[in-house]
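Hi there,

I know you've been waiting on this one. I reran it after we fixed the sequence typo, so this is the corrected version. Both the input and the resulting structure follow.
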Amino acid sequence: MNKSGLHPVEFKILVKLDTVDEKSSGGIFIPATLRDKQQMMQVEATLIAFGGNAFEDWEGSVPRVGDHIYVGRAAGYEVRGVDGEKYQLMNDKDIAAIIEET
């Protein structure tokens, strides 16, 4: 699943933020600059990879690679993988919740 070529270390995690729609719910095209800002503020993501120490002090449910999660707004920093895609690299504590798929 990790095609990014990036491998987090320690307590870091790598996530792929959900994409922001190009059009509003009313059908209006959203300019690229505004979409970029909205993308950075996106809170839903997919866990791609995590470092060796991530989640070691967590109690209860621990996220797994591929899980859909909520992360802190504007947490971490944007990185580009060798596949050309944008990812967010952040701390494991930036995960707010695991989203159960129905």
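Quick highlight: Strands lie at 12-17, 44-50, 68-71, 77-80, 86-91, 95-99.

Best,
R. S.
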